[in-house]
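Box S1 | Example of a co-folding query
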Amino acid sequence: MLRLDGNLVAKARQTRLIQEISTFRTQTGKPPGLAVVLVGQDPASQIYVRNKVKTCEALGMRSFRFDLPAETSEAALLEHISVLNHDPHVHGILVQLPLPSQINEDNVLAAIAPAKDPDGLTYENLGLLWGGRRRVAPCTPAGVMAILEHYQIPVAGRRAVVVGRSNIVGKPMAQLLLDANATVTICHSKTVDLEAQTRGAEIVVVAAGRERFLGKSAFAKDAVVIDVGMHRPSAGAFQGKVCGDVRWEELDGWVRAATPVPGGVGPMTIQMLMENTLHLARLLET
Ligand code: NAP
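Box S1 (continued) | Returned holo structure for NAP
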């Protein structure tokens, strides 16, 4: 089984990205800028934000980190976003989710200027994606496509199943596979006989958010399996470790290729965030 290594793909793309960022700086006189807003002190979110800021700087982009108190009101956060929307040094705005319960996530997403939305999650950017006029693609599905491209896995004409239909992963994933001319089926929690669906596919992207719930029996011989799931179990054999939606250890000798967790889709998400930020910066500045 071929191990689809997201760290390796991200590294390969980083080399090119550093060069592109340097060219952008020379042409415009300023670096691409990413603002990252964290509300509260969720430990996992703090790690994600720290990694994003660190990656930005390592690549030659500028980061603006804002740590707002957990009791920040929705109005105050919206005001903050409005200031960033007008800041000429900021080309991308990322509000780390989840947000505290007093803040409505939809309202916050809607407040981000679509031209500065490197996650591609505002309704305008999702609409452009569905309409075939993509500005940016959401980072995790874009990262999956980059892995398939890097390993030269053919997508056109293939049967692909996406397990999950969230706006962040499942639906845009299906759209990107469709754009690449796969024949796509989307499965979800009401799908009857899920494994009959997944077994019929040459490419299966699993993004159900259910710890280790699919194994060998769910996949056709020689399928390509992409595991988007990310879990840190608090009990059981995987306690304290990171695992995905798929029982990876069952796949060897059966499927053709699969992404591990960790080290598969995860590193690609942050890479695509950086690529999207540069892309938006170019659209805004040139
Ligand atoms: P989500 O919003 O909870 O969506 C999960 C989707 O899976 C839903 O559409 C749900 O169906 C479907 N589902 C749940 N149980 C199912 C089952 N038994 N059979 C078939 N479908 C089922 O989750 P998400 O935000 O899309 O994220 C999915 C996973 O990806 C999570 O583990 C998350 O941590 C991970 N993730 C990883 C990255 C990364 O960078 N690696 C980035 C984002 C997310 P219904 O719509 O019917 O409820």
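The chain is about 40% helix and 15% strand. The mean pLDDT is 97.
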